[in-house]
Amino acid sequence: MAVVVRVVVAVLGGLYAVYSASTPRRSADDGSATQGSAQYPFAVGNPGPGQKAPDFTLPSSNGGQASLADYRGKNVLLYFQEGLMCQPCWDQLTDLERNAGKLKAAGIDDVVSVTTDPIDLVARKNRDEGVTTPVLSDPDLSVSRAYETNKYGMMGDSRNGHSFILVGPDGTIRWRADYGGPPKYTMFLPTEAMLADLRAGAKP
Asked: Which of 68, 78, 89, 194 is catalytic?
């Protein structure tokens, strides 16, 4: 009898683990539902999938200005991140570049990052880290607020969190995941984990 009880408990425990990892949870801070895995939960902010991505033009670490319109006709992954004081955010950029082939296989043509630090410091950090991905400077948070990505950071609303937004060829958002908010405040996740979430939720 004891053996049967242990087997039943083990089976129920396994089913609960699967259920917990695959169903939305509630954020302890604001009550909003989260998605993703237990290890890398995320919210889906506004504007979200199916909505038009706000246009922008910002200074680029690669020189000159960069606009969302420059990527029309492509799938571009916007990565809003906390900035210079967040080393895991730069490790994320390095990991994205290391997995460029997997991004291409997932249909992502380009990656562009946005932070709120001054462009001269951002460009220097890119050089120091050996990162070639363009990082755009949004010091007055005008773009970050348009995408509401400053709602998911550890520093209040003065900086971004860790948000990925896939914009399709027609300028419509196909997928969004805001990993930087509660309860985990994730500032780095493996590119494979992000791509798994994208494949599960991206709109055609």
From this structure: 89
pLDDT digits (tens, 9 = 90+) for 142-156: 999 999 999 998 888
State the Cα–Cα distance between residues 61 and 137, nearest whole angstrom: 8
Q: Give the closest residue to 166 by CA, choosing from 135, 193, 199.
A: 199
* Residue 170 pLDDT grade (very low, low, confident, very high; cuts 50, 70, 90): very high
Cα distances from 184 to residues 113, 125, 200, in angstroms, run 21, 26, 21
Instruction: Say if CB 109 and CB 75 are below 8 A apart.
Output: yes
Q: For 48, phi and psi rounded to 5 degrees? A: -120, -170
Stated length of the chain:
204
Percent of the chain with pLDDT over 90: 76
89 catalytic per annotation = yes
Both tokens of residue 128? 């120091």
The closest of 37, 56, 38 to 196, measured between CA atoms, is 37
**Which segments of the chain are extended strands (E)?**
25-26, 33-36, 41-42, 57-59, 65-67, 76-81, 110-115, 135-137, 162-167, 173-178
pTM of the model: 0.84
